[in-house]
Amino acid sequence: MKKLLNDPESAVADALAGLAASRPELMVDQEHRVVTRRAGVRPGKVGLVSGGGSGHEPLHSGYVGLGMLDAACAGEVFSAPTPDRILVATRAVSAGAGVVHIVKNYTGDNLSFDMAAELAREEGIEVEKVLVDDDVAVEESTWSAGRRGTGATVVVEKVAGARAEAGGDLKAVADTARRADAMSRSFAVALRAGTVPAAGRPGFDLPEDEIEIGVGIHGEPGRRRGPLRPARALVADMLDAVLADLPETSDPVVAVVSGLGATPLLELYVVYGHVAEELARRGVAIARNLVGNYVTSLDMAGVSITLCRADAELLRLWDAPVDTPALRWG
Amino acid sequence: MKKLLNDPESAVADALAGLAASRPELMVDQEHRVVTRRAGVRPGKVGLVSGGGSGHEPLHSGYVGLGMLDAACAGEVFSAPTPDRILVATRAVSAGAGVVHIVKNYTGDNLSFDMAAELAREEGIEVEKVLVDDDVAVEESTWSAGRRGTGATVVVEKVAGARAEAGGDLKAVADTARRADAMSRSFAVALRAGTVPAAGRPGFDLPEDEIEIGVGIHGEPGRRRGPLRPARALVADMLDAVLADLPETSDPVVAVVSGLGATPLLELYVVYGHVAEELARRGVAIARNLVGNYVTSLDMAGVSITLCRADAELLRLWDAPVDTPALRWG
């Protein structure tokens, strides 16, 4: 295994130390692996917490900041954070208006966040849980009951953060997040597996001419393996899968093309070009887009495509100012 | 070779098509592979052109926009753009105040930009060339006479763009760019080679436990090969190399930790943590930092560290508003 690390055991702590050094506007609680905004949460604002296994950076710590998350909990690589740590994060961002937990749909994350929510409620903090389950590749997976949560997390965190920043109450913020999730679908392909530091070898093997179609962000199997095809054909297949399940409205979409960690931007732009071309052909307008590394899987080579049907309100929330390490505009 | 492409021959054109689809504020001239700002150049503003071989994205097209470049010329992968195309870009951004060419120090780029500058001057456009040569790994290389131009290009393009935006004249903008280059040094290591699409196989082979120390952004050999060491030790060695050659002033530095294309953010933050720790130990203050993929080498795994001694004026220019695909703030 070749990685820029000191020790697999310290990978997450060392990366968080680097984030803290890079971003003085964030606070890193190393004991609990919780990242918050140094500015804190404005009294009366709904607090937003997300988190999950590490290895998906910039998710989630890279989305902590004005107009997005108030706290991110970093578990070990591909392992859910423990409930006590999520509780610490929940307390830290509770400012009297309740806290929304944004949870990718994996069994471990669900359990941890549910337990943390229960403990927080016992302390008098209202908590609403929002599940992200956008990955259409499989109905059930080795890591989840129901669809997995992947690329849509960025969209959900962005619009929920904007709604909270604009003064939305707990129900409004949670409803906005749920609506963004309901309107989003994703699909990913892997060209090469990533390597979990503690395992020291790739999570799966792929023959030199095959790809994993519908892969999950932990390297979970997808729908099938198949030959690597030209980007144009691959994108058409991926969009078939996404659009077959995407709610049909007349709204345009927010399109996110995310590298899985080891795919260069040159290739991501090639993919995005075909996404734009293919959606135009199918009469789906793209209102906004992101092309880059947004939800990754360590050093997996591959790409995910996320579409979110966005009405005027979701677009307005998408466009609202955001200031985080990984998303910044407005 | 596993890549998200259609055909090695069309890789650059397909990526530019994707960029054009993603960024309506940019214009892509596919015939000449030139990316410009749709808004054009304000009359009387110095125009800024950079460019070089493709495969280093987001360099250079990702730095076209307000407060940075006015045009980027994309050559084939790892090949300099031809003079006629640089001339097209130079004409496009000429607004009566002259044009600065920011050129990474490689023989091919030098030749092409020099020829284009000569042709532009014949048309009455004043051109100043600024060479970027920050890589301390080797004094001479297979691709260059003198030091290679790498990570400092981002710093040079940023501060020169800000100076031009603020109304600096041709000499002032070129001098600012030259000063940023003179104040910058870089050093990179590769864990795995990248693959040029047209070649179809990795540019070099590295044993499973070795890294290339001082690698260039085209996979050119560095100082030596050596064992992969813990990130902390590797960073200390890289900083030794950079600091041995960095001008000694009392100014703080802008630090850029850039992935080379296939290195995940988790590892880049581990590296940045040690950069911060080690520079603090050596009494060098970091005033600003970037951690991400800024100057890459296709799907090479590895990292570069760039330091630029920045006085108050360079910091002010660094902080000035910028709005490009890859850098955005203010």
Architecture blueprint of SSEs:
The structure is a homodimer of 330-residue chains.
Chain A: H1 11-22, E1 26-29, E2 34-37, E3 47-54, E4 71-77, H2 83-93, E5 99-104, H3 107-122, E6 127-132, H4 152-165, H5 170-182, E7 184-192, E8 210-213, E9 224-227, H6 231-245, E10 253-259, H7 265-281, E11 286-292, E12 301-309, H8 312-319, E13 322-323, E14 328-329
Helix pairs in contact in A: 2-3, 4-5, 4-8, 6-7
Offer a quick outline of the entry:
Chain A contains eight helices and 14 strands. Chain A is an alpha/beta fold and 330 residues long.
Mean pLDDT over the residues of chain A: 97
Low-confidence stretches of chain A: none
Query: Architecture of the largest domain in chain A, CATH level 2?
Result: 3-Layer(aba) Sandwich
User: Would you tell me which CATH topology of the largest domain in chain A applies?
Assistant: Rossmann fold
Number of strands of chain A: 14
Q: What does this protein structure show overall?
A:
Two copies of one chain form a homodimer. The first copy, chain A, is α/β, with parallel strands linked by helices and 330 residues long. Chain A has two domains: 174 residues, 3-Layer(aba) Sandwich (Rossmann fold), CATH 3.40.50.10440; 136 residues, Hypothetical Protein Tm841, Chain: A,domain 3 (2-Layer Sandwich), CATH 3.30.1180. Helices cover 32% and strands 24% of the residues of chain A. Chain A contains eight helices and 14 strands. In chain A, the strands form three sheets. A six-stranded mixed beta sheet of chain A has the order 1-2-4-3-5-6, with helices on both faces. A six-stranded mixed beta sheet of chain A has the order 9-8-7-12-10-11. A two-stranded antiparallel sheet of chain A has the order 13-14. In chain A, strand 1 and strand 2 form a beta hairpin. The radius of gyration of chain A is 19 Å and the shape is globular. The relative contact order of chain A is 0.14. The interface between A and B is large, with 60 and 61 residues.
